[in-house]
Amino acid sequence: SSSAALAFGAGAVVGAARTARRPGAHPARTGTPTGTGRLHRTNRVSSSQRWVVVTPRASSSDVGTPTSSCTDQTPPWSTLSMPVYSLATAPADSAERPSMNITTYCVPVTIKPTPRFAVALYTHTATARNMLATGRGVLQVLRKQHAGLVPLLGKQSAHDVDKITALEEAGFPVVTKHGVPTLKDALGLIELSIVSLETAGDHHVA
């Protein structure tokens, strides 16, 4: 909904239109570990969330009755193929560092009148700090060659590591686009600006 979305900036999409479907339009592999079924969150209270995949019986009289199930601490959507992005941000304070992260909690939510994305920002990260301070960021559509960057961009913090310097040293040139350092060989760039914000547990949904 519009209460939790990021809006496209003017002239924001660069490169992706000619070479790929729009971000988020890639078909995902559907299914669950037990085949087609409904996903239910269990009511059991524990220190971590548990999920159960329920497959309904074939008989119409038994619809909703599970024939098999599997309970796991891994959320069911982690079994699906989905787009992987990097959100690039610049700080409001020149004493702080720019950052890039890895994000999959990101999805297009509207087309008209203004295309919007919903993006989850992990609380207390450099990316969240920069995005909340400036209200702006650049969503990068990644390529296969960027898979090796996940440990740097997704598992380390710009609070501790200069990611821009590390990218250059690893052979990935960085260029400034829309006022933010971005990967030169990104498939596409989407300039984002915050239109509203919601606190959602350990994330901000913008």
Description:
Strands 1, 5, 6, 7, 8, 9, 12, 13 and 14 form a nine-stranded antiparallel sheet that branches. The longest helix has 9 residues. By secondary structure, the protein is mainly β. The chain starts with 5 loop residues before the first strand and ends with a strand. The N terminus is likely disordered. It has four helices and 14 strands.
Instruction: Compute the separation of the termini in Å.
Output: 11 Å
Number of strands: 14
Number of separate helices: 4
Structural class comes to: mainly beta
Order of helices and strands: EHEEEEEEEHEHHEEEEE
Give the C-alpha Rg: 19 Å
Helix content class: 10-25%
Shape: globular
Average pLDDT works out at: 73
| Low-pLDDT sequence parts | 1-60, 65-70
Main sheet specs: 9 strands, antiparallel
Keyword list:
206 residues, mainly beta, three-stranded antiparallel beta sheet, 4 helices
